[in-house]
Structure formats: structure tokens, C-alpha cells
Amino acid sequence: MSNPLSRRAVLGTAAAISALGSAHAANTIRVYESGDSGGGTVTLRMVKRPAPVAGPGQVVMKVHATGLNARDRSLLRGVRIYGGAGKDLARIPFDDNAGVVLSVGAGVTRVKPGDHVICTHFPLWTDGAWDDATMSKIDFGVNVDGFCAEQAVVPADGLVKIPDSLSFEQASTLPNAGLTAWNAVVVEAQPRPGETVLTLGTGGVSVFCMQWAKMLGARVGITSSSDNKLARMKQLGADFTINYRTTPNWNEAALAQTGGKGLDVVFNTVGIGEMERAIKASASNGRIMLIGANSVTLSGDNAQPVGLKDFPRNMIMRRLRVQGVLVGSRKMLEDAVAAIAEKNIKPIIDKTYSFDQVIDALNYMEIGGKVGKIVIKVA
Q1: For the chain, domain boundaries
Q2: pLDDT tens-digit map of 265-296
Q3: Model-level pTM?
Q4: How far is CA 93 from CA 32, 184, 204, 224, 366, in A?
Q5: Is 233 helix (H, G, I), strand (E, B) or coil?
Q6: What CATH fold (topology level) applies to the domain 179-324?
Q7: Contact criterion met (CB below 8 Å) for 310 and 279
Q8: Helix (H, G, I), strand (E, B) or coil at 26
């Protein structure tokens, strides 16, 4: 586990933040910008910027809430998980968001000022199949500014209205973790009532996977290295739990939970390092949803990458399906929001921080003690 972030290395003094907050004028906004991430050090600075103006097809959103995902931590260290490196030293981070429409640009009719909205992770993906060449041209926090700011300008086509039953803090968990899990569970894996699924870890995506799978009637297990977290997940609805620290070969425990049959679905939110065990734990005709993009797992004094020694035989003989999952479309987000309103599902928020406590939120994420989401209340 990496050490908590150095407050000095990450940001200026608290007095500077306070002075900035009291001095910013009506035509400026406060934002956090990423700094020099040389050597893997996370740096952020709070600055003033001119308030954004909506262009054609755009909307200015007053950001009420944002939050943290694993990708944000990697991006702030200058690592782009899906290839390349973060080079922009003045990028506003974070893609979680929820807020109110302040103004609309020419041609916008989908929303109006005053609407409570969230914006999809990839706003150019409105429906249909994913196309990386065109739809990743707007990727909040990567090639355009994200939502760690008092206001943000976004394409109107990416917006989804949120129901009155959700607070801004709850709604902000949906554009990334909630939507990714919806795509993995409801769109791709489609577990049926009575099937057994396992989701790895207790992060935002994993907890949403549990909630969506339970909604569909599946029997759901979850893993963690913490018995306290596992007890919490049992309270939240997990049918069984596995401590992967005390049971490193968690695939054997998963097989035991299914009477040797194997899991119908594994939601791998960790990465390639867990694929071997995911395959071994799977039942015939099982589905493995590959969501995490962490590097291979290393362990022990003479650490070696976890390989896929039995990959070909098990994949073929068990007729397994491995599916990469990438967030989701606006249509999927609309469906997820509708399901939340209908089923009264509440996103699981571990802790909420103020806008002046972004560094504290990052430090807490580094510790690895969360269950569900970390949210930052901007307004």
C-alpha cells in the first residue's frame, strides 16, 4: 500500500486556499489543476479561472458534487491507464459529477437552466456500440477538463436528468462507477435469478456490481482483505464473502460456495493479475467481466507476475467468455437512473469531503479503507 500523499507536495498552504476562496470574483471560479507529476508524485493546486461560457451545443453546469475513482489517482501521477501518459500540467481532474444547468448554448433543447443533471464519462457515446476512434475524443480529466471545479462546460448531448430521490452527492457516483457496473452487470453479463456471481474488492464499481446483480436476483459474493469491510458488505446485502488475504487462492473458496460448480459471473475490477483465479473459479459457460486495468499482481520477496498458465485449456473446455467493459453510453445511464428511481436503490457513499478537503479525500483513498464511493461536495 502506498503512503498517504504529502500535503506539502500536493498543494499550497491552507491559508492560501482560504484567501483564494474569499477573494474570487463573480466572473471567476475556483478549480483544482493537476501539477507536475514527475516521479509519480501527485500534485494539485487551486487556482482561479474565468467562469466558462457555453458554446453551441454546450451547457455550463454548476458543479455540486464530484468524487474519486481509481483512474483519477493514476492520472494525477501522470499515468494514463489505457495507454500514454498525462502530460497536461493544468488539467482539471475527476469525471464524477452532478450539478445544476446554469446556461445553455445555441441549439440546446435537451435541458434548460435549473435542471439537475449528471454528464456521462464519454459524452459523445449517446447510444449504440462503442467506437474508440470517435467517442474517446472527449474524456473528462484526460483530454478535456474534468469536474473538480465550481463550474464546468459540457456537451449537452451527454447530460441525463437526475430524479428528486437522489442528492447531488448520490447522483455524482453514477457517471463512472454506477454506469460502469450497469454496463458490466445489466448489459453484458446479464446474471439470471439464482446464478452466483462474485465481484472483486469493495470499491465503487464493485459495490455497484453487487447492487445491480442483487436487483436482477443473483446470489452475490464479494472479496476484500478486510474482515471489517466484509462485515459491512454482508450488511449491505452480500450473500457470501471471501477474505483474499487469509485465502489467497480465493478461487477455491468460490468453488466451495458453489458446490464445485463454479461462478456464473466474475466481475474483475482489479486487472490481469486476477484473471488466472477468475478463470479457475468460473463455471462452464461463465462470463468474466474485465473492468479493472491495473498491472499484473506481484507478491512475495521474489515477486513474479501472475501468469495465465491454464488460460487456453480452461477458456476452451469451460467455454468461457471474457468481456472488456468500458463505462457506458448515455442511454445506459438513463436506464440506470430510471432503475434507481424505480427500485429505490441508494448509492453507497463511504465519506463526503468539502471542496477545500480534496487532498484529504485523496489521502483517504490512498489508505484503501473505503467501501463504496468517496464524494467531494463542491457547492
Answers
A1: 7-173+347-377, 179-324
A2: 999 999 888 999 999 999 999 999 999 776 44
A3: 0.89
A4: 7, 25, 18, 28, 16
A5: helix
A6: Rossmann fold (3.40.50)
A7: yes
A8: coil
